[in-house]
Structures are given as structure tokens and as C-alpha cells.
């Protein structure tokens, strides 16, 4: 049975702070927080639910910082936020009924492909380009689809959103990262609601980690604004590689 001690609380607070910093820039913070929660003794479902609570703090404060800096127009992505929320809600419900083994096999290679795209694509810059999809079409395809993925499985959601904004909406990398964080906040909230309904959230621990996430996310968001592509691009590549290795290791080792 899980017992929250001061030592565990401090360790997980520190892990959440680091994860929040990384997540606000490149995504993949769950690579740190979920294993840490499992190490602390939480059952898998409770680890996932508690992780969603603390992730909400990081994504909220990162989103708030980006909005205040004028990097996001909330009205222009309102439909995408709604679609991402709905997608995550559906995914969270379905994952309880459907075997996700096939997705586990494919996912490492998808995330690795994202890293390669960010590493080698000449289109990655701070400059906005011609959009491929209108905002409405983007909402009902990319936002809904990635939202569903986050509710159903989760790892790398921020990277998937950022890739969609760069390749389909024509956003520069810093702007794409800012918008990705808002959509990720919407999906986190949707998933958290269903985990709370299922009683799979250790609320006190989640709130402790939420504070750490919020601090880390605020610091990371400032770097996105000041450093832009110089810091985002290498971190996305590193985190994509790390997530791929971690997922492959879990499957085959």
C-alpha cells in the first residue's frame, strides 16, 4: 500500500520541477514523472491518474505565460481546444475497453520519426509559412486525433501537437510550441476528469508535484520565448530519441 512520506514528497516534487521544465519546451516530461510515481509505490492506474493531475499544473502555467506574452490567440484555436478535449475524453474511455498493444509496438517508431523530422527538416524555423489546413479542418483532424491519442495512450503528445502546428498550420517553432501547450492542457484536463471519476488520483501527492511542475514550466516557457528554435529543436530531438529508447526497452528487455 502506498504511503506518502516527506522524503518521497520532496523527491517527486524535484522530479516534477525538472519534468515541467522539459515538458514546456519539448514535451516528454512523463518519461520522468510516471516512472518516479511507480517507483514511489503507486499502482499503474493511480500513477497515470496522479501524473495527469500534476501535468495539468505545468501545462496551465506554461499556457498562461505564452498567452500573456502574446504568442497565442485564444479565439483562433478555440475550436481546436474543444476538439482536443473531446478527443482526449473519448480516448480515455476507450483505453479502458481496448487492448493498446498494437499502439505500443508502433509508437516508438512514430516518436523517432518526429525527432528525425525536427532534426533534418529545413522547414523548422521561427518564421510562419503557408498553412496546409484551415483552422477548422485542423481542429477536426489534428487536434481531435492527437487529443484522442493523449487520452488513449499519451507519451509524446506535446511533440505530436507541435509537429502538427509546424507541418499543417504553418507555424514557426516557438509559436507551435506555445499553441501545442494549450491543446495539451485541454487534453490533460479531459483525462484527469475521468481518472478522478475512477478514483485513480492520489490528490495530495498530485498537488505537491503540481507545484513543482508549475515552477519548472514557467522557467521553461521563458526560454521558449527568449531562445526559440535554438533550444526547442535540440530538446525535441533528444526527448524523441529518449522516449523511443524508453518504450522499446520496456517492450523488449
Largest sheet, strands/sense/barrel: none
Mean pLDDT: 83
Residue windows where pLDDT falls under 50 for at least 5 positions: none
**What does the overall shape look like?**
globular
**Helix share, percent:** over 70%
* Number of β-strand runs: 0
Radius of gyration: 17 Å
Please tally the helical runs, counting DSSP H or I stretches of 4 or more residues.
10
Q: Please report which band the strand proportion falls in: under 5%, 5-15%, 15-25%, 25-35%, 35-45% or over 45%.
A: under 5%
From N to C, what is the helix and strand string?
A: HHHHHHHHHH
Structural class: mainly alpha
First-last Cα distance? 27 Å
Describe this structure as you would to a colleague.
With 253 residues, the protein is mostly helical. It has helices at residues 6-26, 30-39, 44-68, 78-94, 101-120, 135-152, 157-167, 173-197, 203-227, 229-252. The longest helix has 25 residues, at 44-68.
Walk me through the topology.
Layout: H1 6-26, H2 30-39, H3 44-68, H4 78-94, H5 101-120, H6 135-152, H7 157-167, H8 173-197, H9 203-227, H10 229-252
Helix pairs in contact: 1-2, 1-3, 1-9, 2-3, 3-8, 3-9, 4-6, 4-8, 5-10, 6-7, 6-8, 7-8
Output the keywords:
mainly alpha; 77% helix; globular; 253 residues; 0% strand
Short summary:
The chain has ten helices and no strands. With 253 residues, the protein is mainly alpha-helical.
